[in-house]
Amino acid sequence: MDRSESASDSGIAGYLREISHHELLTAHEERELARRLARGQSAARRLAQAAELSMVRQAVLQRHVALGQQARQRLVESNLRLVVSIARQFVGLGLSLPDLIQEGNIGLQTGIERFDWRKGFRLSTYAYWWIRQAMTRALANDSRLIRLPPHAGDLLRQAAQAEHELATNLGRQPSLAELAEHLSVDPERLRRVRLMAARPTSLDAPLPSTESGLTCGDLLADDAAMAAVQSGAEAHELREDLATAVEKLPPREREVVRLRYGVGRPDTHAMAEVAVELGVTRERVRQLEVQALRKLRADTGLRQALLELQGGDSVAARWTDRAQPWLLPNVVASTPAREATAAPALPLAEIRPGPMVTHPRGLAARGTRHHLAG
């Protein structure tokens, strides 16, 4: 037992000795103290509401308030042992005995405030339910990392008591069906409540029976990291496939693709810049680009790599014959006009605002251009 536990035990022992000095009340004493308390509460309300009172009247009301406070203190002190006896019933369910006593004392004070001595029953009978409610609510709120609803906590406590009784009578641990039949509840409901009540395990908890310093978190796979590694490897392979496909193009077409989409280069260029670089017209650059993209779309190896990277043949099924190959370079167009097969063509494409492009039919539009990262 460590120092904190010994200090807690010594504190509880001192508290129990202290409350044992308070005498229990008779029924007549309880009624008299409750009457004084009610009179003091009424006097406190009149003092708060009345605007003008004589000095004598104020003195009388203040005396009633003081007598009510004394009566309240006496009622609390005389029933502290009741709180301890109830708290012992909930020990081992998630809260320590001092915490249960503290919560029970709060419930006791609530019960005393609401006690009506005119009903004729004892204070302990009425306050018992307030004390118990305070303790069960504290168990539901504070005893677990994940809060359970009150009805689930009550069912768990009943199941624990019933399991102990059945184990004593049967000489073995009862099955779930036997326990549910004893409690008159549905076995599936009892199973779900027990599953909810399972204690969570910290990822930083050390592994049992090991001195390597490993924790539970060290044994869990990081799916996000594995997916990132796999995605990076696939992207690298795709860049290699693209570079191989571009190398198969004629020199002029290969140079247009590299300048326009940044393949193997850190930057991209507009069509006018490519025309100046190659010493040809913009129309010729556009023609070379269209021819190069058509050949890249027809490359079987590159198309297969793209489909594998982005989910297989379902990617091709997303595109319809409405897709225009001159506005969407990533459309894989087949020869028949009504049988367009689609797939993201140029890998690792990012969409950036592009310059004015010329429609094959003579229309000009500013759209988006798919640039390839090198």
List descriptors:
374 residues, mainly alpha, Four Helix Bundle (Hemerythrin (Met), subunit A), Arc Repressor Mutant, subunit A, 3 domains, two-stranded antiparallel ribbon, 15 helices, 2 strands, 5% strand, elongated, disordered C terminus
Write up what this structure looks like.
The chain contains 15 helices and 2 strands. It is elongated, with a radius of gyration of 41 Å. With 374 residues, it is mostly helical. Helix 2 packs antiparallel against helix 3 and helix 5 packs across helix 6 (123-142).
Q: Helix count, per DSSP? A: 15
Model regions low in confidence, pLDDT < 50 over at least 5 residues: 312-374
Shape category: elongated
Count of discrete structural domains: 3
Q: Characterize the biggest β-sheet.
A: 2 strands, antiparallel
Please name the CATH architecture of the largest domain. Answer: Orthogonal Bundle
Pattern of helices and strands? HHHHHHHHHHHHHHHEE
CATH 4th-level superfamily of the largest domain: Winged helix-like DNA-binding domain superfamily/Winged helix DNA-binding domain
Which value, in Å, is the CA radius of gyration? 41 Å
Please bin the fraction of helical residues: 55-70%
Q: Could you report the average pLDDT, rounded to the nearest whole number? A: 75
First-residue to last-residue Cα separation: 66 Å
Strand order of the largest sheet: 1-2
- The CATH class of the largest domain, by name, is Mainly Alpha
* CATH topological fold name of the largest domain: Arc Repressor Mutant, subunit A
* Secondary structure tally: strands: 2
Q: Strand-residue fraction?
A: 5-15%
